[in-house]
Amino acid sequence: MSFLVMPHRLAFAQFSVREQPLLFFAVTFITGELVAAKSSRFNLNFWFISALAFFVGALLLIGVRNWRRDWIVTLILLANCFACGGLLWSLNEAGIAEQRIKQLFARGVIQATEPVEIWGTISAAPELAPDRIYLEIAIERIATLGKEQTASGTVRVVVPFAEAQDRTDYDALQLDYGAEIRALANLRKAHGYRNPGAPDFDELLEYRGYDATGLIKSALLIERLGDGSQSRILHFLYAIRANSIAVILRSFTQPTAGILAAALFGNQHFLSRDTAESFRVGGTFHLLVISGLHVAMLALVISWLTAKLIKSRGWRLVVVMSLLWSYALMIGAQPAITRATVMLTFVLIGQLIFRTAPGANTLAASALVLLAWQPRDLFNPAFRLSFLTVLIVVTITVPLLDRLKRLGEWQPSTLTPYPPRVPSWLKSCAEILHWNEARFQEEMRKAPIHYRLEKARAAKWFSQTRYKQWMQLSFRWLVTTFIATVSIQLGLLPLMIAYFHRVSFVSPITNAVQGALIFVLMMVGVAYLFIYSLVGGLVMKLAMIVNGVGWLTAHTTDWLLVSRKLNFRVPDYGANSTWIYTVYFALVLVLIIALSLWNPFSLYSLQQKKKRAKEKIGDRLKALRRELFWQGAFSSAAVLFVVTASLSLLIVLLIWHPHQHEFEPGRLEITFLDVGQGDGMLITFPNGKLMLLDSGGRIPTDLAQTEGEEVFVEDRISIGEAAVSPFLWQRGIKQLDFITASHGHSDHTQGFEDIGKSFTISAALTGVIPEDDKQFDAFRQAVLQANAPLKSLRRGDSMEIAGVTIEVLTPYPDALNAMQAANNQSLVLRLRFGQRVFLLTGDIEKEIEAKLVAENEDLKTDVLKVAHHGSRSSSTPEFLARAQPDFAVISVANPSPFDHPHPETMTSLQNIGAHVLQTSKCGAITVSTDGKDLQVKTFVKCE
Q: Which of 345, 496, 665, 745 has the most C-beta neighbours closer than 10 Å?
């Protein structure tokens, strides 16, 4: 009965140096890069000598023949990978030239407020957007303040099309990949909004290979100098992409056009805000971003077609790889698509030589290649998420699905003579997914020995007709997608919270449904483009079908996205996040190892193994016990249960966040947020209650509308999502006690649109409520979404919160009837706490300031929020003389589109001896008091 002993071949893939060596090499390589990046102790010479020494040591040991040699050589090679990682990082950092654009910014040679003349070559295909176009320029020379010098680096500039003539002027230049140009531009570092928790756009641009961004105000400021050096292959691929996007935009309506342009060709500028937001809420936005999933879909279709047309395995490989890499280059070789293409290349080569590499080993190989080429990608969030997502898939999803497949297809054999001992529900699920009763009956008709198997009734039902087999296949797709989605979300939950602050309980369903639909949409879209290339506009009649599929893709799951209990935002965990995230990922690692060791069939050889062990020496018994402990079905299943239970507890803690937000009891704190050209303040009262006064926003550009025409609103990151919400999440805030709008202008209220979707709101306050003002709609919508009571305040109203008295100085009772400008209807609040006073003035102008002065209002204050961003229409000398602030805070952008603050205002503030702080120079400014002292902190050192 020796055939009952489980052969080694039945074992699942293990995480060992022998089976997956590249995984261990990649880990040590990455560790070396991390050490080099975080520590300045080791210089370039140290890493070079270390790498050389370990390499020579490994070569010298190759000729040694003994049992220890393999392990010694392996350890030396791992050490060599560690040293190579540090060496490549050091080489990359040492290669930054002094004339790089980012270095010129650091030295002050280039100023954001001064135009720069640039010479360079367009290094990628121009990227079209609804009202503008983006150019990627490899800089060769610059001239600033009349001084010309050599420069290097890549900048991304935008050319706006404010009018139809602007587009005509641009088209006349015939700019394309490889064109040499001269232009006058305003370059700047895209540092974003400098608030705690806000994303650093400067870093994100650097990860994409850009030194700076810029604006060329008109195509008339561009001169085409000629054609530079270019790759004909890239030129051809870029032309295909540009023409295809143009056909999509001409042929289809929204949301189909936006989805296809994004999912097929990586241009997300034509996604509407509503479409993109519905995908985000449902946890399916990744379907609109070209990634490994899209490459896998493409590879699947190409492989299927080439298998039908080409007999030679070698030529099939050449065709598939050529098309995949052409597609990757056409899109721009972004990290996610490059990683996926490298992985698939290894897989295809493995198939050619009849080798199937474990997924983790293949992923490690692609990581080694890409990090050796671009070491800084190690800190790129997109790179991290891309690799970690695939790592979860190959270490959790694939092993779990593999075991389900073996459970569902089980038949007695010499390898598995007995059924697996697993819970009956798991066995039934596996059989429903994978059992083929028709195939089993066909085998029984041909087999010399006949037997029957007890299988789930539903599993047998699926095999009765071909239609039911298709149902089984569809059900398998849904379950596979469900398992993959849940695995990724749970495996990377801390990162999902840190980067996106979003949890969606319906995402397993939406991913399955929209994943299938977007695959169909991509296929019919490609088919449409192919037919269009043959017959041109004659295919336009088929556009209706594609539009229908696009509408279904965007709206089929809308009904799942209504409830905020199923889709909500999650704040950071707070001060304890480091240890809880560490424990979480440690448990995920244990889960991965336990899952790799779990063999549901091994239990049935247990008695035979014990019997054999008794017949051998004691060492064999000890080895057997170790084997049973680490590889036995019972121990692995027990570990899986304990780890899963522990992870479930941590998931509850992370998602529901039972702790109170960060605040200092007994202190009144006001944080003036950096929201660009706008206002946004968080007031934290001594008892922890919160008021968000204004929320920032942009000057409206898409409110104009032709009657009967639907307005396209592009999906662009909003102020609320980029500046305000991240700051609140970083503080662990889930609920705001008050949201307050000083007045209706969008640069004060636009951020409330995101605030209303992301936070619980108890009450809302404002001054004048305009009846017909679209700029005020964001605040109005936030109030409706929160179902919060809205109170309109007037001069003389007051309230007290935790010892802080809030007095309303304006608007006056007749403000709405007086037909005043919206700025002069601003809500002006005076906060008193102990001996300290704060005056928050909104956007009031000199007329209201004069009225307050004339009424002998006590305006003395310690901290003044300077009105209207420091414009000359406010902050009159008389008003400032009455206020006499110690600190004056100006919320303004850099550079300001209106040249705020005005020099006259700055002079007036200096004349009264106020210490002026600007959010454009200091980032978020926090002022706090216990009623006696006054503490002022800035997020960054003031420029």
A: 745
With respect to residue 708, please indicate whether it lies within any of the assigned structural domains.
Answer: no
Give the domain-ending residue among 501, 525, 541. 501
Two structure tokens written together for 107: 């030295």
Instruction: Provide φ and ψ at 325, rounded to 5°.
Output: -70, -35
Residues 136 and 34 in one domain: no
515-524, 573-582, 630-639: least confident range: 630-639
In order of 112, 284, 371, 455, 500, the CA distances from 289 in angstroms are 31, 10, 22, 42, 15
What is residue 100's DSSP assignment? B
How many domains would you assign to the chain?
Answer: 6
Per-residue pLDDT of 643-667, as tens digits, reads 888 898 999 988 888 888 889 999 9
Do residues 580 and 521 both lie within one domain? no
CB neighbour burial string for 524-541, b if at least 16 within 10 angstroms, e if fewer: bbeebbeebeeeeeebee
Looking at residue 701, its pLDDT comes to 53
Q: How many CA atoms lie within 13 A of 779 on its CB side?
A: 36
User: Does residue 620 sit in helix, strand or coil?
Assistant: helix
Q: Are residues 923 and 774 in the same domain?
A: yes
- Please say which residue of 593, 627, 659 terminates a domain: 659
- Whether the Cβ atoms of residue 407 and residue 422 lie closer than 8 Å to each other: yes
CA distance 716 to 697: 12
Give SS3 for 735: strand
Lateral strand order in the sheet of 804-810: 798-801, 804-810, 828-833, 836-840, 863-865, 887-890, 915-918
Q: How far apart are CA 677 and CA 920, in angstroms?
A: 9
**Between β-strands 804-810 and 828-833, what pairing exists: parallel, antiparallel or unpaired?**
antiparallel
Specify whether 142 is located in the same domain as 174.
yes
Check pLDDT > 90 for residue 553: yes
The average pLDDT across 302-311 equals 86
Q: Tell me the pLDDT tens digit for each residue of 432-490.
A: 999 988 888 888 888 888 888 888 888 888 877 778 888 888 889 889 999 999 999 99
Q: Is residue 642 very low, low, confident or very high in pLDDT (cuts 50, 70, 90)?
A: confident
Q: Which domain holds residue 533?
A: 232-356+506-570
Comparing 704 with 259, the larger pLDDT belongs to 259
Residue 779 and residue 905 share a domain: yes
- CATH code of the domain containing 183: 2.40.50.140
* Domain of residue 874, CATH code: 3.60.15.10
Say if CB 43 and CB 90 are below 8 A apart.
yes
Is residue 487 in some structural domain?
yes
- Is the same domain home to 582 and 563? no
Cα end-to-end span (Å), the chain? 81
Q: Is residue 738 part of a domain?
A: yes
583: its two tokens: 């424990």
Closest by CA to 479, choosing from 561, 401, 554, is: 401
Cβ-Cβ contacts under 8 Å for 75 (sequence gap 6 or more): none
645 in the same domain as 547? no
Taking the C-alpha atoms of residue 350 and residue 366, their distance in angstroms, rounded to an integer, is 14
Ramachandran angles phi, psi of 245, nearest 5°: -65, -40
Residue 623 in any domain: the answer is yes
Residues 926 and 839 placed together within one structural domain of the fold: yes
Out of 214-218, 294-298, 929-933, pick the least confident: 294-298
The pLDDT score that the predictor gives to residue 628 is 42
- The CA R_g of the chain, rounded to the nearest whole Å, is 32
Q: Which two tokens stand for residue 655?
A: 């998602």
742: nearest Cα among 723, 772, 769: 769
Using the predicted structure, report yes or no on whether residue 337 has a pLDDT greater than 90.
no
Q: Cβ distance 211 to 690 under 8 Å?
A: no
Instruction: Check the CA dihedral 715-718-722-726 and report its sign.
Output: negative
**What is the rounded distance in angstroms from the CA atom of residue 427 to the CA atom of residue 441?**
20
Q: Which residue has better confidence, 509 or 601?
A: 509
What pLDDT sits at residue 820? 66
